[in-house]
Amino acid sequence: MNAFNVHPSVKAVQTSSSTQMVATGAINVEQKPKRTREERLEAASKGLQVHCVGLSIHHAEVEVREKLAVPESEWNAASSDICSTGEVAEAAVLSTCNRFEVYFAASDPRQAMARVTNYLSKRGNIPVSVLRKNLFMLSGDDAVWHIMRVAGGLDSLVVGEGQILSQVRQCHLHSIEEDGSGGKVLSRLLNNAVAAGKRVRSETAISKGSVSISSAAVELSEFMAQQDLQLPFSEARLAVVGAGKMTRLLITHLASRGLERITIVNRSMGRPKELQEQFPDVDIEIKLMDDLWDVVGRSDIVYTATSSVDYVIDKGLIEENGLANGKPLMLVDISVPRNVGTDSSELTGVVAYNVDDLKAVVAKNTAMRQKEMIEAEGLLREEANAFVGWRESLSAIPTINQLQERANAFRQEELKKCERKLSSANLSDKEMEAVERLSRGIVNKLLHGPMAHLRKTESVEGKQATLKELSAMFRLDEDANGRGRNKRSRRK
What we know:
Elements: H1 16-23, H2 37-43, E1 49-56, H3 62-68, H4 75-83, E2 90-95, E3 99-106, H5 109-124, H6 128-134, E4 136-139, H7 141-151, H8 163-175, H9 184-203, H10 213-229, E5 238-241, H11 245-256, E6 261-266, H12 270-278, E7 283-288, H13 292-297, E8 301-304, H14 315-320, E9 329-333, E10 350-353, H15 359-368, H16 370-393, H17 397-417, H18 419-424, H19 429-455, H20 460-473
Parallel strand pairs: 5-6, 5-8, 6-7, 8-9, 9-10
Antiparallel strand pairs: 1-3, 1-4, 2-3
Helix pairs in contact: 7-9, 7-16, 8-9, 9-16, 10-11, 17-19
C-alpha cells in the first residue's frame, strides 16, 4: 500500500495527543552521555521512527522564528544537545530564513517530543504555551513526506526555489560529520530527500522561472514604489546592507530589471569587491558600516540582508541619526533574525517590510505552478516510498539474526553428535576444518533464499507477513529444546 497517496500540503495540526506531548516538555531529565556513532547505528535496527518538530513561515510569526534561529556553524552543537539526554537517538537541525526544524529518530515518540520541545523552549526562552501555538509536529510517514516536500521546494514560500535544496544538503552533510548526530536512519532519510529534490529540479519545470526570496523582495519593492515613495521604481536610489548570498541574488534580480547603480554597506570590503567583479555592468559603490546612516539618508529603498542578531535599523536609530524628517523611505528586510525593527513604520514617510510580507507577492507564483507541483509530488512519493521500504527492511534484522543463530545451533548440535565417529576416523586438523566449513556452507546456502527475500524492499504489510511466515516455518518462537520462548518450562 502506498503511504503517500494523499495530496497534502503538510501543515501543522494541533491534535490533543500533540498537545499532550508538548505539555510534558517541562520535565527535567537527567543528563546522559551522548551515544557513540556505533551505538546509534546499532539502535537503527531496534524500532527507531523518524519525527519532525519545527516552525516555518506557514505556521509561525517571524518574531518566534528568529528566537530559535541557529547559525549553520552551530547546527551540530544543537543536535548534540538534543541527543545528550538519551530520549532522542539521532537528530539534525535545519535553520533557514523561513523555517527552523529538528528532524530526529527515537523509539519512544512521546518522550522524544517532550525532550525536543523542552530544548526549544529553553533555547528560545519561549514559554511552552506560546511555543505550542507555533510548532508543528509530524511522525512516521508524515515526517518523511514533509522533508521530501521541503527538499523539492514545495513547502517553500516561493514554490520551486532552489536554495532550500542546498540547505537540506548541508543539513545531511553536517549530520554525518564526526560531531554530527545523524545515525543510520536519519542520514538515510536526509540523503533520500536530497536525491528527491534533485529529481524534482531536473525532471520537472517547477524551477523554471521561479523566484527566490530575493527576487520576491525586488518584485514587492517595484510594485509598491509608486505608492510608498511617489516615484517609479526605475528612478529610486537603491542600497543594500550586507554582502552575502542573499545580496548577490538581490543584485542578480535587480540587474535583470535594468539596475545601473547600487550602494552596498558592509562591515568589510572583501565581499563587496567580489560582487563588483561579478557584476561589471552595475556601478556598485562600497561603503563601510560607519557610513550606514549617510547612505540611508540619500537612498529611497534600502534592502537589509545581514546575519546580525540585533536590529541594524529601527525607529530609535533613525531618530538618533536625524533621519525622521518625513522623507519617503522604503525598508525591505529579507533577514531572519530581522535587521529592521517594525517600529520603523511608525515614523512619517517610512514603510518597513519583512519576509512575512512577501506572501502576497508569491501567491500567484504558487498558482502558476500547480501542474508542476503535481508532477513533482509523484517523484517525491517514489523517493519517500523508497525510504519507508528501506526503513521497514531494518525490522527484518532481528529475525535474520534469530534465523542464523537457530541454524548455527542446529549445525553445532549435529556436529557434536558425530564428534566420536569423526575422532575415530583419525582426521587431521585440516580435514576437521574442512568438515566445519562444509557444514557452515550448507547452512549458509539454505538460508540465503529466505534472508534475501526478507531484505527485499516491499510493502509494510508484505514485510510483516513474510516475517510471520518465516518465524512459523523455522519455529523461531521456540527455544533449542522445542519449547515456546514465552512459555515457562515445566518443573521437574
